[in-house]
Amino acid sequence: MELQYIGHSAFYIKTKNAGILIDPAISDNPLAKFDPNSQIDDILVTHGHADHLGDAIPIAKKTGATITTVHELALFCSKRGAKAQGGNIGGKITFSWGNVRFVNALHSSSTVDGAYAGGPVGFIIEAEGTKIYHAGDTGIFRDMKTIGELYAPDIVLLPVGSTYTMDIEEAVVAAQWLKAKKLIPMHYNTFPPIAIEIQELKDKLPKDIELLALKPGESIQL
Ligand code: NI
Ligand code: MN
Hints:
Elements: E1 2-7, E2 10-14, E3 19-22, E4 42-44, H1 50-53, H2 56-63, E5 66-70, H3 71-79, E6 83-87, E7 92-95, E8 98-104, E9 121-127, E10 130-134, H4 144-151, E11 155-159, H5 168-177, E12 182-186, H6 198-204, E13 210-211, E14 219-221
Parallel strand pairs: 3-4, 4-5, 5-6, 10-11, 11-12, 12-13
Antiparallel strand pairs: 1-2, 1-14, 2-3, 7-8, 8-9, 9-10
Helix pairs in contact: 5-6
The structure holds nickel (II) ion and manganese (II) ion.
């Protein structure tokens, strides 16, 4: 399958038969790169903040894709006319293309209009024999060791921009606790409070973890 970095915390997964968007904040991010004609069947959203819920509702309404997110945020999306299904931490939802496990994230959540959006989550996404951990917005927490033990993700997508999430120092430890083989950094350099030098991550990350600092629009094959 193909994993494309759209920008910020937004990704697009293309399996043989399905297209999956994660945290699709696209129209408000001038750095984002994504082909709007891509196949979209499912949209995964980690929490209600605008830089994650993003364009999920209008894209779901336009394409007929289903939003999968935390129960309360799923209700919020349904009320606005999008197809949505809810889950919560510990739950696993099965799709035609694979499955998604909801895991913890240490952060906050609400919608732009102040609605309660449930808690924030991360996802273990399994498709075509590959496990991807999208951490959402989070600080480091010691149960990342548990996530590593239970799910041994092949690739981890970790926020590194600080201010609202982990910084580089925490992400370096988190990647090791997760037993990551590959790391894609996210949630950095989108706006000034999360500006960092990605070279610092390259310098600090152990050499047995491959750093894939993708530019918006770049893809890798998994
Ligand atoms: Ni957030
Ligand atoms: Mn965020």
